[in-house]
Amino acid sequence: MNTQDVYNIQQAFFASGKTLPYKFRRQQLKLLKSAVKKREKDILAALHADLHKHPVEAYSSEIGFLYVEIAYLLSNLKRWMKPEDVSSPFIMYPSKSRIHRVPLGLTLIIGPWNYPFQLIMAPLAGAIAGGNCAVVKPSELAPRTSAVIASLIRETFDPAYITALEGDGSVVIPELMQHRFNHVFFTGSAAIGRKVLELATPHLMPVTLELGGKSPVIVDDRVNIRVAARRIIWGKFWNAGQTCIAPDYVLVHNSVKDELVAAMKKAILQFFGEDPAASPDYARIINRKRFGVLNTYLQQGTVLHGGATDENELFISPTLLEEVDWNSPVMQEEIFGPVLPVLAFSTLEEAIRLVRQQPQPLSLYLFTKRSSTEKAVTEQLSFGGGCINNTLGHFTNPELPFGGVGYSGMGQYHGKYSFTTFTHPKSIMKTGTWIDVAMKYPPFRNKLKLVRWLMR
């Protein structure tokens, strides 16, 4: 089926009104969950084949995460769908006002390769909850996972309702976006995000962009060093650093830098052993092109730990760097791999200034025991979201909106924020006819004084 046929049949399906009822949306969310449950082994095998993900890592970040999201949507959907009563201005008496959350229509969801299952399916769950039709485009760079997604959707849903289209994104996405979708949801790099935004502009298509950036870790001198080191290493080297919210670099107070580095080295050894290449718990780089980019970063500083590579195995060991230049590519580009620069600062003001010299990051992580430091960083720095004394954790909470700011993205999702992203707040005012106040009608004569009083 070509993109024109897909677009036409989905338009007809949405126009039929089948997606509108609560019962239908609930049933489809349950269908999605049961379809995933039936294919858990296939999904885990695909993720291992594409990225060498350990089943625990793959399940928790790709499958289990989706189950939590679906459960949250099912628990709250009926309440979210109810019209919201709001007050009406006295000058429009007798009126009642309501906000109805209505489906957008046809949605396009474009996924990345780093979490190739979850970052397609979680937005799809939001689109279903919102009462929409959807076309999903999984990443061709994770081909085994893309095939599993396409098979799952084909065997579970009517293609007039939800369709998966595989293939080269540089071909398929422009073909799809010749048509006007009611919303485009993209997760991936800023470079591709710009192209998606350009394709959306002629049709004035609204777009959610979930991008990335250089997410900093700030570690001050009053901190639990052992815990900070373990949580930084865990967050950084999860999926071999190929996570949009992974710590991108560490800014540590110079008085505790050596202690933190020693603790991070110890954590790497505890997590992945003396030979991370032999560890079943450590993922691989997605492809040779990406490997080549990451390999150049290793030359842009002094290796404190790691630095081992094997291009044939797409392996780069967990690596700590120091003595990096802020103007070098490793400090100007999102690393998106297992390389972690460690830099020192003397004062909190200096750390804040250094973070500000970069575009706004998707995430920020602060390790401190000082409430004043927490307040200063939270208030003075702009970033999408983050954690105090942890990494990655904010992404797991469906109560929290997830999304970037500035160069790190636009729009939010997760939980209720997925529902609001994939719906439109339609405003309705209903006015009674039992009385018809004449004040608003011409001739106006001497009504200005009364209008001023009413609208003061």
UniProtKB/TrEMBL annotation:
Superkingdom, natural source: Bacteria
Lineage: Bacteria, Pseudomonadati, Bacteroidota, Chitinophagia, Chitinophagales
Keyword Oxidoreductase on entry: yes
Similarity comment text for this entry: Belongs to the aldehyde dehydrogenase family.
Keywords, comma-separated and alphabetical: Oxidoreductase
Residues the record marks as active site: 210
Domain Aldehyde dehydrogenase: 14-428
Annotated protein name in UniProt: Aldehyde dehydrogenase
Pfam family, one: Aldedh
